[in-house]
Specification:
Elements: H1 2-24, E1 33-38, E2 41-46, E3 59-63, E4 72-74, E5 87-94, H2 103-109, E6 112-121, E7 124-126
Parallel strand pairs: 1-4, 3-5
Antiparallel strand pairs: 1-2, 2-7, 3-4, 5-6
Amino acid sequence: MIGRLLALAAVPAAALMLAAPAIADGNSLGPPGGTIYAFDVAYRTVATPTSLPPKGPTDTIYVFPDCLACASVSEAAPGHPGYNGGRWRVVQAWGITTQLTNAADVLDAASALTDTGIRFVCPLSMK
């Protein structure tokens, strides 16, 4: 029960992490929301407080604990093969201090990757 409560508390924290850069520059659609990059394109999103169980298909979204001003980067996006409709697993990419805009660059630049265990739903739309 305590584990479930902690997991539910983590969803708003993940949404805030994703939203912080966009809220700071006024680009959000509504609270919380933000910019996510995928394939060198900026997408908009409205983070919903919807947690997912740790099963089923998800796409990876990278967050950058060493760059709080950096927007998140996704490995998938609408119109690309394998996109799961905004079902995400959050992975911290350590050692990145500047904005990257595609997952291949994140994988090349990260000193370490940590799966946070956070899963949530948050569709992307063109900016």
